[in-house]
């Protein structure tokens, strides 16, 4: 379970704190009374801006973690000297990997090396948790476990495999810095505004009351609510810190694996109480695999982690958030959603 006493007053650094998952992690940590710091390349659209999360942080920096010209900014990490680091900063979109392959490789590989290199100089840092992806597996439609073969079929997945190789190499050089990797399924929740993501495109269509164009309607992903994902990250960090372990964990909501993108879209539109139609995109702009499967038995056995929300519940929570923030600009609703989730764990 989440240990409230453990997280209270812990100094936690989140890279990518303005991104979708990083923003929700900040909300959870604020509920747990941690001292939170953030580093991002930019102030991103979505949850961070919409819920006005800037004020939940003790401090934040904005610079490119993959750039060699940021020595003075990197030194600020040593001044923060965090107890725990969540490295979420990344180029996280498959289609951007096709459009900007060099930036994708730099962000995900060089950026990770730079972060680990700087964190290794911080005397109080005992736990680092790095977010990679379910897309690192060579055989995407297998029931992949953590030691299944890795292999990238596009620049994005290749960059994340490279990121994991950097983590492994760094761990061999600095065995005292405990770094765990989390490979999480496709997350859904309020405030996601990443381009060409299913939920983002759906919400834009619903708000504009325009028919929704759906790519790859039969694609199946390890769908999970962002809260279930954050719950897993927190458990991994606790174990990493308290047991001084470096581990790799898949996080997958098995109960939600049977649903395709078309089901999610239809259900989302129904919950929104909208009359828009779904049009199927016939020309595939960029290649993605049809099915992704990961096995999270290890996380369940070793951490006691299991997803809480069903597919319909997670879509309903997302619709509630999105409708609330059509007019709201405060963090209160987001804080309450996260607090209710935490309370339901106990």
Quick synopsis:
By secondary structure, this protein is an alpha/beta fold. Helices cover 43% and strands 13% of the residues.
Average of the residue pLDDT scores: 91
Please name the CATH architecture: 3-Layer(aba) Sandwich
**Cα end-to-end separation:** 8 Å
**Considering the protein shown, what is the CATH homologous superfamily?**
NAD(P)-binding Rossmann-like Domain
Arrangement of strands in the largest sheet? 3-2-1-4-5-6-10
- Low-pLDDT parts are none
Number of domains: 1
Order of helices and strands: HEHEHEHEHHEHEEHEEHEHEHHH
| Largest pleated sheet | 7 strands, parallel
CATH topology: Rossmann fold
Q: Rg, please?
A: 19 Å
- Quantity of strands, as a count: 11
Protein architecture, described:
The chain is α/β, with parallel strands linked by helices. It has one domain (4-345): Rossmann fold (3-Layer(aba) Sandwich), CATH 3.40.50.720. It is 43% helix and 13% strand. It has helices spanning 4-7, 20-31, 47-50, 71-80, 94-99, 101-119, 155-173, 198-208, 226-243, 261-272, 297-303, 311-324, 332-345, and strands at residues 11-15, 35-40, 59-62, 84-87, 127-131, 179-184, 187-188, 212-214, 224-225, 248-251, 278-280. The strands form three sheets. A seven-stranded parallel sheet has the order 3-2-1-4-5-6-10, with helices on both faces. Strands 7-9 form a two-stranded parallel ribbon. It has a two-stranded parallel ribbon with strand order 8-11. α3 links the parallel β2 (35-40) and β3. α10 packs across α12. It starts with a helix and ends with a helix.
């Amino acid at each position: 379970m989440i240990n409230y006493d453990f997280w209270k007053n812990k100094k936690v650094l989140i890279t990518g704190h303005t991104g979708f998952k990083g923003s929700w992690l900040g909300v959870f940590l604020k509920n747990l009374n941690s001292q939170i710091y953030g580093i991002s390349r930019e102030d991103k659209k979505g949850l961070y801006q919409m819920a006005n999360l800037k004020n939940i942080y003790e401090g934040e920096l904005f610079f490119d973690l993959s750039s060699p010209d940021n020595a003075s900014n990197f030194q600020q990490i040593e001044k923060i000297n965090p107890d725990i680091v969540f490295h979420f900063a990344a180029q996280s979109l498959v289609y951007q990997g096709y459009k900007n392959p060099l930036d994708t490789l730099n962000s995900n590989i060089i950026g990770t090396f730079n972060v680990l290199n700087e964190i290794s100089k911080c005397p109080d840092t005992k736990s680092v948790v790095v977010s990679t992806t379910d897309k690192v597996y060579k055989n995407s439609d297998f029931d992949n476990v953590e030691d299944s073969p890795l292999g990238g079929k596009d620049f994005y997945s290749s960059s994340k495999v490279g990121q994991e190789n950097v983590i492994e190499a760094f761990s061999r050089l600095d065995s005292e810095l405990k770094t765990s990797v989390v490979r999480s399924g496709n997350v859904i929740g309020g405030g996601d505004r990443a381009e060409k993501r299913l939920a983002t495109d759906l919400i834009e269509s619903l708000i504009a009351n325009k028919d929704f164009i759906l790519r790859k309607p039969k694609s199946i992903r390890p769908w999970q609510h962002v809260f279930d994902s954050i719950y897993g990250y927190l458990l991994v960090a606790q174990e990493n810190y308290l047991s001084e372990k470096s581990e790799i964990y898949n996080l997958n909501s098995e109960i939600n694996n049977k649903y395709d993108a078309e089901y999610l879209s239809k259900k989302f539109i129904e919950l929104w109480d909208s009359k828009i139609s779904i049009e199927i995109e016939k020309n595939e702009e960029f290649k993605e695999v049809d099915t992704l499967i990961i096995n999270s038995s290890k996380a369940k056995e070793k951490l006691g982690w299991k997803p809480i929300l069903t597919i319909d519940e997670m879509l309903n929570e997302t619709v509630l958030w999105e409708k609330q923030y059509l007019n709201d600009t405060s963090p209160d609703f987001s804080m309450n959603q996260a607090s209710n989730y935490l309370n339901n764990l106990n």
